[in-house]
Amino acid sequence: MSKKIPERSEIAIQDQWALEDLYATDELWQEDLKKLQAEIDELAGFAGRISQSAQELLAYRKLVDMFTIRAERLGNYAMRRGDQDKRDSYYQGMVGQFMKAYVEAEAKTSFETPELLSISDEKMEEFYREEPELELYRRYFDKSRSRRAHILSATEEKLLAAAGEMSQSPQNIFSMFSNADLKFKPAVDKDGAEHPISQGTYIACLESPDRVLRKSAFENYYAAYESFRNTCAATLDANVKQLQFFADARKYASPLEASLDCTEVPTSVYHQLIESVHQNLDKMHRYVRLRKKLLGVDELHMYDLYTPLVAEADAHIEFADAKKTVLEALSCMGEDYCKVLKEGFDNRWIDVYENIGKRSGAYSAGSPVHPYVLLNYTGTLDSQFTLAHEMGHALHSYLSNKNQPTVYSDYVIFVAEVASTCNEALLMEYLLGKTTDKKQRAYLINHFLDQFKGTLYRQTMFAEYELRIAELNQQGTTLTADVLCSEYKKLNELYYGPDVVSDDQIALEWARIPHFYYNYYVFQYATGYSAAIALSRKILAEGKPAVERYLGFLSGGCSKTPIDLLKGAGVDMTSPEPVNTALELFGKLLEGGTSKVLQVDAPYRFRLLRLPVLHSFENNNVFTGSYGMLRFKVTPQITMKTPKEVDMEQSSMRCEFWHGLFCYEKSEMEGEQVFPLSEEGKEQMRLWLLEQAK
């Protein structure tokens, strides 16, 4: 029986993030919002003044810093509350209140850049001499003044700022539609049992060894999007058009150039990534062929690309165990790093489990008090890697906030994925070094290969698609559902190659990808992964010197360009070398014996009789499984010592078995036996079932 997705009220407090660290009550938030609005008016009063004297410019920047801290606090509280349950109109309204104030602030401070540009270089140097405290802001000023060609008049800047709220509409519509309004028909497994589908459970269904379940989940998931294909197309089309509008308004050659200019990353890095991946598509196609072979299927479908090639004996990882493992894996980062990591684990920085209406996926958000991490933890190995990933972001935010002044405490998107993915790489190295079990090692290597597939190749495919639809829009093509589907399917076939069936449903995948609303964000997963692979190996090979360079990078915020920050850590992203090196490693893993390890081990996945963790039975969950033609059902018989404590000695597990193709309800039982509710009892049951299979 599948586990029901709980309501927010059913989630234990210790598994919820501590938003009270930001504001103890909603009323205090409202009071602070009024203070923010007063600061907006005060900032607006500096119009026409900041170019007049060094004193006025300094006073303005100090007030901006205060405003930034308050806005970050307000925005974090509203958005984190809103993401807890997208159905809660009160907190969605709070998000709207904050965004209205933030857009108003942007409009009323739009005078800043034009006024800064009106100051001559000579006069700016005079300001620095008059007010030495302005030196702190020199890099910030230089960055603004370097964009003279893209800055408009004060009136035009005000209009663009006012349009900012509308520019967020496509993303907001997509988020509400996908996370709150869209409903999916349950998937059905080979035994006829239903499994609820949500944004949080969909990939977990695709990871199942049950191919019937995978196919059902895949078809039912995309059937929901198919019902709204034109709505989804109109929403994405609107987003592409708003990006083009702002790029045109600021006199950029393309939305890509406009987006990357803000992060100080050359567009050549984006194009170079796509080119490098195209040159290495043969490795991806080889991986797909290997997957088809190891799964033993006549046709490999898109719903077969997530299930592990090598099964684990017990795939469920309790959250407490995941935290312990991540902490051990990152011990190579030194005591100071691990102390902060443990603080995050112990003090509710993390919102752990899925609930109905909760935002899907995972993210980390920096804040003035401490970072916040959203998870939808499911107990899989992938969930454990996601924990390491998001805590990488969290530590990056924490160290940058701690070591940089407000004006430089944030970091740009380009470097964001480095810290997170480096943690994943270190966790992988730790797990591979720890295990001596051949099958478990093969499982981890397969996961490593899947990371290359999912991060370097798949995210680059997304990046290329984002670029392609922008080009079509520039050419005057309306992005209808048919156009979007056609372009997506072509790319999907190019990247995955001829050995996988490019199912018709996959043409709609663009409709579910949130990153297409993040303004050329997604390519940085691939570049970040490449940089992280290089940095993780430096840390493990060199030890303390590499760690110190890396911690310097994490503490750098945006005090330097992202390219320079990474160079300081030991990686040059203006070169194709990091991407090519990572793809070479992928090729070596495929060629250097890894495929043989997987091939040797693959038959064991079919000889493995899988049972869930004991804790699942303690929670009174019924389990239905299969082993070849053997079918079995395990029903816990629970006796409670107290309302909250299971009496393990008095409790047991009743196991029934049958053979054939039909489910429990349509079959005649051939035998049953009762086993103690213990690890020993579970092993006795496993061996007994193996005897029945013979």
What is the fold's blueprint, element by element?
Elements: H1 26-44, H2 54-84, H3 89-108, H4 112-118, H5 121-130, H6 138-145, H7 154-162, H8 164-167, H9 169-181, E1 187-188, E2 194-195, H10 202-206, H11 211-226, H12 229-249, H13 255-261, H14 267-279, H15 281-295, H16 319-329, H17 335-346, E3 350-351, E4 363-365, E5 372-374, H18 381-403, H19 413-434, H20 438-474, H21 481-496, H22 523-542, H23 544-554, H24 562-569, H25 577-591, H26 594-607, H27 614-618, E6 623-627, E7 630-637, E8 640-642, E9 645-646, E10 652-659, E11 671-676, H28 679-693
Parallel strand pairs: 3-5
Antiparallel strand pairs: 1-2, 4-5, 6-7, 7-10, 8-9, 10-11
Helix pairs in contact: 1-2, 1-3, 2-3, 3-7, 9-12, 12-13, 12-20, 14-20, 16-18, 16-19, 18-19, 19-22, 20-21, 20-22, 20-25, 20-26, 22-23, 22-25, 23-24
